[in-house]
Amino acid sequence: EKLNAFKLNLFSTTSSSLCSAAGPVLCSEFINAGADTSLTTLQWIMANIVKHPHIQAKLFAEIKAVVGEGAEEIKEEDVQKMTYLKAVILETLRIHPPSTFLVPHAVSEDAELLGYRVPKDTTVNFVISLMGRDPKEWENPMEFRPERLLNRGENGEPDRVSDVTAYKMMPFGSGRRLCPGKRLALLNLEYFVSNLVWNFEWKPVDREGVDLSVKEVFLMVVKNPLRAHVHVSKNQMKA
Ligand code: HEM
Fold first, then answer.
1. Which residue owns the Cα nearest ligand 1 atom 1?
2. Which of 106, 108, 122, 153 has a C-alpha 20 to 30 A away from that of 195?
3. What residue ranges define each of the domains in the chain, with the CATH number in brackets?
């Protein structure tokens, strides 16, 4: 309890006092909550990219359209222009959020949810791993189709990623306890995935395919770690 109270104080203190007094606790908190979740998600994304060559090709084409031929590294500012990349990452988080549950939440006053009465102080758990696969919300939910998360741009405007992560799927939670690392995590994933696809061509190992079975070890991880043939991309050979 003391530690939790301390952590709460941490988030409300000024950055200068954070640096001097509470920096190490904040850092370890962020490393614990941020490392495995990000790494697990990266594995799921790459597994889906290897399994679906047409998605890898479309991603490569988008990257090329943004950076042009011969670029060595995809930079932070480049990924902001890559809408399909963002949709691939979100589509992965829809089907494979690393966490099954959110941390338990509670209602601070009597509430009604979908016809159910939820009395004040009741603990509410969200099974986010099922939300993204709900056939009432998602057509053919187990199909990996990033396009479903894109809104077509009108009057020549570029496509946009639909903002569904707060209600139809919640890989980062929602509300005031929303994952504070959400933006950092997405940026990291966008950076890694774009560079991995730009610099290498990923193919499944012959006859093995890609196994998307899940293993629950606190997080929902890839049961049989991804094995793939990795080739230096033609683009980099030319460069
Ligand atoms: C793909 C990567 C990540 C996913 C899917 C993820 C997901 C989540 C989820 C579901 C929660 C619970 C939110 C809720 O109950 O409403 C959470 C909390 C948290 N996350 Fe993340 N996270 C990721 C990356 C990160 C990173 C990179 C950091 C830090 C740098 C981070 C720091 C935290 C912290 C400190 C909490 C606790 C917040 C609180 O209790 O109020 N996470 N995350």
1. 38
2. 153
3. 2-238 (1.10.630.10)
